[in-house]
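User: I'll paste a sequence; please echo it back and then give the predicted structure.

Assistant: Echoing your sequence first, then the prediction.
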Amino acid sequence: MAIVGGRNINVFLGLFTATATWVGGAYINGTAEIVYLPSKGLLWVQAPVGFALSLVIGGFFFVNPMRSKNYVTVMDPLQETYGNVMGSLLFIPPLLGEVFWFAAILASLGATMRVILDIGGSLAIVISACTVVLYTLLGGLYSVAYTDVIQLVFITLSLWICIPFALVNSATESIYYTATHQSYQDPWVGKIEKQYLGRWLDDFFFLVLGSIPWQTYFQRVLSAASPGQARLISYLSGLGCFLMAIPSVLIGAVAASTDWNQTSYGLPSPLERGESAMILPLVLHYLCPAYISIAGLGAIAAAAMSSADSALLSAGSMFAHNIYRKILRKKATETEVLWAMRTSMLVSGAAAASLAFYSSSVYDLWFLSGDLVYTLLFPQLCCALFAPSTNTYGSAAGFLVGLLLRLLAGEPALSIPPAICYPACSLVNGTYSQLFPFKTFTVLLTLGTILAVSYLAVVLFQRNILPRRWDVCNIMGGTSTLVPLRQVGKQMGSPTVALEENHD
């Protein structure tokens, strides 16, 4: 199938395209931003280690179950276990995740173009969105993969060329000294205060586990030539993601060690102007020669393109395969599916561009992009792959519990106040901040709800505590295709398997 490139991607190509997918504009811009912020610092840069561990865990635990059943998308096991209706509902979190991720990419690319090319932010976002959408529509998985190779090489070379010029600039203090000593601002290594430890752990688990249930990841490992190669691609790309963060960390450290009054940027500093999200392009523009800053701009653009086309391709693939082909038009031709994919790409691109206009921080959008996927989809995928005895009732209950708990916890990036204030919830500058690891807590409750309600539903119907006619999801038998009967019967030890086989 074209979505997984005929399952013939080699290790070299898979390594580059998997690494380039995660190393996007939001990744390199966000890493530099967090290192630069006095309230954060290097210790709060969790993405490099988080993504690396995520790819290792994905390769170790998730590749074999997905490859053994020849799945095409991350939604396939969910639809197979919980049916098309529940699968359609579970399609919403990854779709929103891809849109948020694409919005973060556009915001970072727009910020870069605004600084170095001196064009309006809105125009930069529109130009970037149109370019990425057009670029993605013209190529499939192989086109995206081969361009990822070129883009990743270009990113590496361009950023490393910029580093020496920024380090030796006369306005920059030694980053070795400013790492532990206060100069123009607090040391850029940062610190984790005791009251923020719960939030730090929550963000870390979010990056490690919440980065697994993405179609962009599974599209790479499912397209590999063999399960062994798929695991190898996953392990090596984790190392690649970690190494690709080093230039951004150095640039963030340079920014924190710079007397901006000695540059043409002047005072107040980027932090005081509220431009910390653009710190990487600012360093390239004001601390490097013009021809070097253009190379750096190309690196950021390449990083954005390498992730943007993957996000659009992922959203389009899931809609075309899991919604259009499996639900809306089961007899759809390949041409119809292709046009459905292209249409969904256009809609997703337009939605992401609209959201990018309201981005105050690249890192906020970047974290928000995987929030719903982590709290809602990750527990569902784990149950579908490793606890297939779960059923549609448990899935629906878990989805409802997870969604309510996550929404009621609020979202500072969208100025949504919390309705549930967990322990250590504090009001900072008029904005409520949840210091309790509520995301991971929501994941655990969602996981427990799925398992408990699934077991309870089977017990109630098997023992006739509830009449079989109330089994609207048909987990105990009948003609509905919401849940595979043989699978449920075998795993629950139900005699309905024999009944169904006799009936057939």
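The CA atoms of residues 270 and 446 lie 41 Å apart. Residues 479-504 have pLDDT under 50 and may be disordered.
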